[in-house]
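Note to self: keep these together.
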Amino acid sequence: MKKLVFAVVLVLLFALVIGCTSQNTIQTTPQTTQTTPQATQATPQMTLSSGIGTSSCTSPYDGTFSGTVEGQGKDIYPSGSTVPYLLDYTLEVTFECADENTAPGNQQSFDLYVTHAKVSNPYFDCTSGCTPPDYARGDADATILAPGDRDTGRVSLLEIFFPDGKSLEVAPLFGGYDAKTIEADQTDQAGLLSASILGLDPHCQTSSACHLETSLCHNCDNYQQEGFSMLLNKIS
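Structure:
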């Protein structure tokens, strides 16, 4: 009888222990980790430009050249009589590459902006220096072949338009082998005389005022060029 009571008590104690254990079970709540995406903002890139005529190309002629332009010939009166003229002035120009061209046979030429000019003759109203309006418009004023190239069958010229509307033109021309000089091509004298202009005023009121060649000759209405030259040396 005592053994039976003891067994019953043992069973009850065991049941009590199991119940307590089940009630004390620890529940673990999983933690949720939220990742907040970071917004990436693109920083805009700023492109700086030093002017409308600015280009990424370079040429061997970039820089400032200075020298002399000369012309001689005869001014012609309406009567047919003539008087000789001899004109010269100093010209300073600063070139900046506008474009590089490659022709068949790997022949190079360079279109150039004239970013600044200075002419000693007051005819051009640029004795203290001026910026040709073509540069502000992004237009090139010169095309020069690669240094030392004298291919007269290809375009090579300098045509500067000044703020007051006047202009000068030299063609054909070429650059020296070391790109330190630019000069009118005397080997093509006929082409040089027909294409080159010492000075032109498109707003002239009289025929004698239209060209620098006749501007100092009263009542002259025409002229005949007999010689033309230009030699510019790189100074910076």
